[in-house]
Amino acid sequence: MNKLADDYADRGMGSIFLYTQEAHPGENYPPLTSMEQKFANAADLRDKLGVTRQIYADAFEGDCHWGYGSMPNMTWIFNAKGVPLYKSDWSDAASAENAVAYFLDVETRRKSGEVLVPFNVERLDYRNNDTRAFFEGLALAGPKAVEEFKKAFG
């Protein structure tokens, strides 16, 4: 997602990372008990995962997280007026880039005089399921997070 943000920054696209909570708490990243802990976890995430986008921390109770779908790894794209253009319940750079390119093309087509009207569409996308990388990331939270995930999802 960092690369996507960098690739389209010169086209007026901004990108943020909203830190909500630990999706799979463990010994290293236990359930949150304070905003200070939330800020520290967000900074650690930035450093460990190399997030270069600006990071914001959600309210302690997760107001934004709950208001926008409550999934642990969502992507939303809004236009400059704050209208949602894209919602994905899982962050996938290829899917998000497809949407960004599409909406920038809409902007170009409108500027050329084409009259376009919006409509809603639902689409099933596919992402690479790298189980090894997922569990390596999950292990950062601690063995408890790995075991609880395995118990819950097999």
Strand order of the largest sheet: 1-2
Largest sheet: 2 strands, parallel
The radius of gyration computed from the alpha-carbon positions, rounded to a whole number of angstroms, is 18 Å
Stretches with pLDDT under 50, minimum 5 residues: none
How many helices does DSSP assign?
6
E-strand count: 4
What overall geometry do the principal axes of the alpha carbons give? elongated
| Reported CATH architecture | 3-Layer(aba) Sandwich
Which structural class should the secondary elements be placed in?
A: alpha+beta
What distance separates the N and C termini?
A: 28 Å
**SSE order, one letter for each helix or strand:** HEHEHEEHHH
Task: Predict the CATH topology.
Answer: Glutaredoxin
Features:
154 residues; Glutaredoxin; 6 helices; elongated
Q: If you had to describe this structure to a student in words, what would you say it looks like?
A:
The protein has 154 residues and is of the alpha+beta class. The protein has one domain: Glutaredoxin, CATH 3.40.30. It has six helices and four strands. The longest helix is centred in the middle third of the chain and has 19 residues, at 93-111. It is elongated.
